[in-house]
Every structure is written in C-alpha cells, then in structure tokens.
Design a protein that fits this description.
Order of helices and strands: EEEE
Radius of gyration: 21 Å
Number of domains: 1
Number of strands: 4
Helix content: under 10%
Distance between the termini: 34 Å
Shape: elongated
Oligomer: single chain
Strand content: over 45%
Strand order of the largest sheet: 1-4
Length: 63
C-alpha cells in the first residue's frame, strides 16, 4: 500500500546557524548572515512523504 502524506508548513529553528542567524568560520572567526534563514534564525519547514507499507514475509532459513 502506497500512502502519501503532506505535512503543513511550520516555523522551526534554522539548523544551519542553530537559530542565531549568524554563521561563523571556526578558523578565522569571520561572521556573516546565514543564507538559509536570511539572518532570522527561523525557517518554514514542510514535507511530502511517501510511505510504502507491505506485509512482512520472513524467509525460512534451512540449516
């Protein structure tokens, strides 16, 4: 059975900058605005998921 699910958009913390809105270079310390969230620290997330659900049919193992 194939089932498609669509998740409605929701606001979430930006994973790229961890919600700070700023990215840092760990070597130089240089900072810039996160290009994923535009400096807000938040993003809108939505998803389309396809589930493929099948009965489990174990194979018999002969010894």
């Amino acid at each position: 059975m194939i089932q498609e699910v669509e998740k409605q958009p929701k606001v979430a913390l930006c994973r790229k900058c961890r919600g700070t809105g700023i990215e840092r270079d760990p070597h130089t310390g240089e900072e810039w605005v996160c290009d994923q969230c535009g400096g807000t620290g938040r993003v809108t997330v939505s998803a389309k998921i396809t589930y493929d659900i099948r009965p489990y049919k174990p194979t018999t193992v002969k010894q």
